[in-house]
Amino acid sequence: MKRMRIALAKGRLAEKSVNLFIEAGYQLPDDIFTSRKLIFQAVDDELELILVKAADVPCYVEYGAADMGIVGKDTLLEAGRSLYEVLDLNFGRCKFALAGPPGREESPGYQRIATKYPNFAREYFNEKGQPIEIIQLTGSIELAPLTGLAELILDIVESGRTLRENGLVIYQEICSLSARLVVNRVSMKTRRREINEVIGRLRDRVERGGFLC
Ligand code: PRP
């Protein structure tokens, strides 16, 4: 039987995702945090972890190249892929928010929104019936209103420190976000027993609380 493959998002969620597996009793290679390898096999379980860019996790899981994945709800909302979201892992907590320079909250003049989440932003403003122009960036979003590239930003806010240190304020909180466990639709049927075992072990660890928050 093929090993269960689980795609983890590199970056801000990686360490907690790996630690979740370790604390759920999976024995992983010691070099997982130091190696440049991208595939890591568990020692006693028929399971392997792959590390991919956060934005690619939904793609790996939808196409079945990975049976399961751990990724932020922000990435899932943006990707709009067809997969099962089975567990809120209760870490990587942050929120989507609109932000910009202070004192401009009520100004109807803003029209250009800088974001790493163009699909989500388009849908959000379409629902409001508000015409806007989306400027898609890949990082350092807070620079956009400071340089005149856009009037405001739609981005994730975790501690709020990046906004604060760049003199920006939240105009509106949109929704809460956190890391989620996702499952490929076919694997859910064909590997149900193994999938349920992983979900159960991770859920038990998450429900015990502690380091994950
Ligand atoms: C994210 C996000 C904000 C920041 C928010 O960027 O785009 O810039 O984190 O976190 P805070 O509220 O705790 O300050 P990230 O660190 O992923 O880097 P990026 O700018 O390269 O996208």
List its traits.
D-Maltodextrin-Binding Protein, domain 2, alpha/beta, 213 residues, binds 1-O-pyrophosphono-5-O-phosphono-alpha-D-ribofuranose, 8 helices, six-stranded mixed beta sheet, five-stranded mixed beta sheet
Topology of helices and strands:
Blueprint: E1 4-9, H1 14-23, E2 39-41, E3 47-52, H2 57-62, E4 68-72, H3 73-79, E5 84-88, E6 94-100, E7 112-115, H4 118-128, E8 133-136, H5 143-147, E9 152-157, H6 161-165, E10 169-177, E11 179-183, H7 185-190, H8 192-208
The protein binds 1-O-pyrophosphono-5-O-phosphono-alpha-D-ribofuranose.
1-O-pyrophosphono-5-O-phosphono-alpha-D-ribofuranose (PRP) is lined by residues 12, 139-142, 155-162.
Give an overview in words:
This protein is α/β, with parallel strands linked by helices. The chain has two domains: 4-92 and 178-208, D-Maltodextrin-Binding Protein, domain 2 (3-Layer(aba) Sandwich), CATH 3.40.190.10; 94-175, D-Maltodextrin-Binding Protein, domain 2, CATH 3.40.190.10. The protein has helices at 14-23, 57-62, 73-79, 118-128, 143-147, 161-165, 185-190, 192-208, and strands at residues 4-9, 39-41, 47-52, 68-72, 84-88, 94-100, 112-115, 133-136, 152-157, 169-177, 179-183. Strand 7 (112-115), helix 4 and strand 8 (133-136) form a beta-alpha-beta unit. The two termini are 35 Å apart. Residues 12, 139-142, 155-162 line the site of 1-O-pyrophosphono-5-O-phosphono-alpha-D-ribofuranose.
